[in-house]
Amino acid sequence: MQRLDVTALPPTSAGAAVALSSGTQPDFLVRANNGIGLIAARWRRRLHVQLSEPLRLDDHVLSYCASGRTETTLVIDGVPVHLRQRLGSIAFVPAQRAVQWTMDSEGESVHVHLYIPRDSISVPERIGADGKPQQAVVSLRDPWIESYFRLMLAEVESCAHDARLEASPFLDETGTMLIRHLDTLLSQHPASAENPPDSAAHVTPLRPFIVRRIEDFVKSRLNGDIRLESLAEIASMSVGHFLRSFHKATGATPHQYVLRRRLDRACELLHGSTDQVSTIALRCGFSSAAHFSAIFHLHRGCTPSQYRRAK
């Protein structure tokens, strides 16, 4: 295996997109030397991770939850999918689809990713009544793949202790076998049950009075934690149904909507108060001034201090 630097990856690679959304570097990032181009990475995340602008990734992503609990919302080609990821959860996201994601975890979570070149496997797609492909994300329950991830982690940990990570032949010798198994599995596996092929055509948007209740709830709690389950409870819906209905009504996922409200309120405080940036960050529900500044710059094109000086 060959060690990689995430900053050297193309911006449309899956590894670079994960680094952008999390603001972190992987514990390890290695590529097989067998010509396939298979890349493995392990990520440790805390609390909130978001890729807010859609990207068409160069790679398929096979993800394994190694520890922690994560609520993940994927928006693929405009259709939201909700995943509850726990130890052993496996998900597959195909390449070259417009994808965004939001992840919220209970404390630290650890995910291991395999980035697979898009030409290495054939991903079957269902075509909906509108003529658009409907295959989005697949939640897998496969003991073989789960065992593969565990073996890979054990191999990486073993090599890390004696600084010979490059010497490990694991990805080199098993990459072809993994791709063959995954290709067969995907050809037999239906789309995620939380996002059936024709679900978008039958989604009823939230009624305006429920949207107003959501708006009032979010506005009153911008300085605290706003849980997806709490929003779904206001609408008297399951989380999956609420995600689709909310997106249909507003054109945004709940996480995108809440983030916009937080940023709008922050802008008001930056121009209308003399509070320090760190104080505004906490009042608007951001975990720290650094987190607030990074998110603000990503969405508004400048730092909070620059925005304040420009008034």
**How would you characterize the largest beta sheet?**
9 strands, antiparallel
Count of helical stretches = 10
**Number of folding domains?**
2
Low confidence ranges: 127-131, 162-167, 191-201
Instruction: Report the strand count.
Output: 9
Order of helices and strands: EHEEEEEEEEHHHHHHHHH
Instruction: Calculate the mean pLDDT score and round it.
Output: 81
- Please compute the radius of gyration using only Cα atoms: 21 Å
Outline, from the CA principal axes? globular
Helices and strands, with pairings:
Elements: E1 2-3, H1 14-22, E2 28-31, E3 39-56, E4 59-67, E5 70-76, E6 79-85, E7 90-93, E8 98-117, E9 138-140, H2 143-161, H3 170-188, H4 208-220, H5 228-234, H6 239-250, H7 254-272, H8 277-283, H9 289-300, H10 304-309
Helix pairs in contact: 2-3, 5-6, 8-9
Plain-language structure description:
It is a single chain. Helix content is 40%, strand content 24%. It has 2 domains: 2-199, Jelly Rolls, CATH 2.60.120.810; 203-309, Arc Repressor Mutant, subunit A. Helix 8 crosses helix 9. The protein has helices at residues 14-22, 143-161, 170-188, 208-220, 228-234, 239-250, 254-272, 277-283, 289-300, 304-309, and strands at 2-3, 28-31, 39-56, 59-67, 70-76, 79-85, 90-93, 98-117, 138-140. Strands 1, 2, 3, 4, 5, 6, 7, 8 and 9 form a 9-stranded antiparallel sheet that branches. It contains 10 helices and 9 strands.
